[in-house]
Design goal:
Helix content: 25-40%
Bound molecules: S-adenosylmethionine
Strand order of the largest sheet: 3-2-1-4-5-7-6
Strand content: 15-25%
Radius of gyration: 19 Å
Number of strands: 7
Order of helices and strands: HEHEHHHHHEHEHEHEE
Distance between the termini: 20 Å
Number of helices: 10
Structural class: alpha/beta
Largest sheet: 7 strands, mixed
Length: 280
């Protein structure tokens, strides 16, 4: 673990399921020493950026997200210059949002332009959500915010510094490939898309593939393999009967968490989640 943590290193994207509000609950449950860390469903990376481990394998199946992190690592100053060109105006927003409708044009953009677009849309779209439709196209509407922080240069530079001073590998793979490749001594934090608590609460817009109950079962099988290899993990998910049954052989800690997945604000609020771990 990095000895002096940089407070400016923090999530640069708002992400559905962001774990900032659960950090204080998770922290005491972590192993005392983490020398090597793996996060296969990194999303906004709240725990990663909080812990700032010296060695980390960072993964997510969302290609746009991993591109953002890769560009922050390799090209942060061009990214900041690119972001400065964006305006918080509805017409401008929809024009930028629609870049991915023209596949040929989109393919011709640089990685820096694509990453700047995602950061810009995330700051200016309604509720700050990354959401795609079945065709994989960004579809959140304009948010009409007064003063969105489109160019958060201090945070971008801090994350750039962290990514370049620690030993970080960034991949865009299905979680199973990542989990099969890690070895003993690595600590794993698993924060998959949650099992829906009701038919209307499911959020599948992270990627066009969604996340099914079969994916949840496959993940539990991966967890069993980690346990067999002596690799420690902690997993978060919703407190559904299905999830509790899947992990009935493990320690299950029920926690209350505020979630804002529902766009109907009256449905936001405290709901039960579980933390599952395979170590004392
Ligand atoms: C609950 S979010 C993670 C939130 C994150 N912990 C945070 O603090 O922002 C789940 C993530 O899993 C990713 N994901 C979905 N299916 C996946 C798969 N098959 N393999 C790897 N990542 C996947 C999504 O793109 C999403 O970013």
């Amino acid at each position: 673990m990095a000895s002096a943590k940089n407070k400016l290193v923090a999530p640069v994207l708002k992400w559905v399921g962001g774990k900032r509000q659960l950090l204080e609950t998770i922290k005491p449950l972590l192993p005392k020493r983490i020398s090597s860390y793996c996060e296969p469903f990194v999303g906004g990376g709240a725990l990663l950026f909080h812990l700032q481990p010296k060695i980390a394998h960072v993964n997510d199946v969302n290609e746009e997200l991993i591109r953002v992190y890769t560009v922050i690592k390799n090209n942060v100053e061009s990214l900041i210059t690119e972001l400065e060109k964006f305006k918080n105006e509805a017409d401008f927003f929809y024009a930028v949002r629609d870049w991915d409708r023209d596949k040929k044009k989109y393919a011709s953009l640089s990685d820096t332009e694509k990453a700047a677009r995602i950061l810009y849309l995330n700051k200016t779209c309604y509720n700050g959500l990354f959401r795609v439709n079945n065709a994989g196209e960004f579809n959140s509407p304009f948010g009409s915010y007064k003063n969105p922080n489109i160019v958060n240069a201090p945070a971008l530079r801090a994350v750039n510094f962290y990514f370049n001073t620690a030993n970080i590998s960034l991949t865009c793979l299905d979680y199973e490939k990542v989990l099969n490749s890690i070895s003993k001594g690595t600590f794993v934090y698993l924060d998959p898309p949650y099992d829906p608590v009701s038919d209307t609460s499911s959020f599948t817009g992270y990627s066009k593939m969604g996340f099914t109950q079969e994916d949840q079962v496959r993940l539990r099988e991966c967890c069993d393999n980690l346990t067999a290899k002596g690799i420690k993990f902690i997993l978060s998910n919703s407190a559904t009967n299905f999830i509790k049954e899947q992990y009935s052989n493990y320690e299950i800690i029920t926690v209350q968490a505020k979630r804002a997945i529902n766009s109907v604000s009256s449905r936001r609020g405290e709901i039960d989640e579980v933390l599952v771990r395979n170590y004392e």
